[in-house]
Amino acid sequence: MKDKNIKKIPYGLANYERVVEKNCYYVDKTMFLEVIENTSDYLFFIRPRRFGKSLFLSVME
């Protein structure tokens, strides 16, 4: 029996709306938005593959 309340890990999802639709876990990193907005005009995100870069950018849209 599947429990619809069990959250999944959003492996492979890069769109915030889809993460919410599929009831997946999401770690809120929006506290960093102020830091990003107060930095230079160009940003360079250095993170490993599959580390949520595109998902974070999707939240900012």
Question: In words, what does this structure look like?
Answer:
- This protein has helices spanning 16-21, 33-37, 53-60.
- It is mainly alpha-helical and 61 residues long.
- It is elongated, with a radius of gyration of 14 Å.
Task: Give the arrangement of secondary structure elements.
Elements: H1 16-21, H2 33-37, H3 53-60
Quick summary:
By secondary structure, the chain is an all-alpha fold. It contains three helices and no strands.
State the end-to-end CA separation.
Answer: 37 Å
Structural domain count: 1
- Look at the structure and give the mean pLDDT: 82
Share of residues in strands: under 5%
Give the biggest sheet.
Answer: none
List keywords for this structure.
61 residues; elongated
